[in-house]
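We were asked to recover a plausible sequence for a given structure. The inputs and outputs are reproduced exactly as logged, with field labels preserved.

PROBLEM: sequence recovery
POSITIONS: 186
GIVEN STRUCTURE:
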């Protein structure tokens, strides 16, 4: 039976500042974020991955590097469809200020399934691209494959929904526990 281990990138400086990062690629892992990645590596130290997928954004790639700990025997595939949600005009802006300036729109932009922030993606859009990846990748797995996926808060949501049979409301409502690994048998 194949296995998938799914995890979110470590905390970044943008996470700490409460800024919509989205597709910006200059976010750096904080010291706490690096420690989260080391914690994931420790949890997975006895797991031997055969493949690893990561978003094309540096924070997810750096997380995967730390988790793999220099292993050279793992095929690493950079997958743009695992990117974080595009926040459009909110990118680089404070979540607190946005909530204050747009009290009616903010909850919809931030957590609804089908309302996108101006110029950005709604969760339905993210789910569509992530599921395209998942539906291509799953049939390629062999029974002994062990797959690591390093992604982002919003690109993890549709994968978790797929495996955990969540409703759209459930998928949009939660925050991922930092440093948590989600494991699925295929």
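RECOVERED SEQUENCE:
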């Amino acid at each position: 039976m194949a296995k998938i281990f799914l995890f979110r990138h470590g905390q970044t400086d943008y996470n700490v500042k409460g800024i919509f990062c989205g597709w910006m690629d200059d976010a750096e892992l904080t010291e706490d974020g690096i420690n989260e990645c080391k914690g994931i590596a420790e949890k997975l130290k006895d797991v031997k991955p055969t493949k690893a997928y990561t978003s094309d954004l540096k924070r997810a790639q750096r997380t995967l590097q730390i988790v793999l700990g220099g292993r050279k025997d793992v095929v690493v595939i950079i997958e743009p469809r695992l990117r974080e949600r595009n926040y459009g005009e909110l990118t680089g802006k404070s979540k607190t200020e946005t909530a204050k300036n747009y009290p009616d729109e903010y909850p919809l932009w931030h957590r609804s399934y089908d309302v996108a922030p101006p110029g950005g993606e709604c969760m339905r859009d993210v789910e569509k691209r992530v599921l395209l990846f998942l539906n291509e990748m799953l049939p390629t797995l062999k029974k002994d494959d062990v797959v690591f996926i390093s992604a982002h808060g919003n690109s993890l949501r549709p994968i978790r929904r797929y495996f955990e049979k969540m409703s759209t409301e459930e998928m949009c409502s939660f925050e991922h526990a930092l440093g948590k690994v989600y494991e699925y048998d295929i």
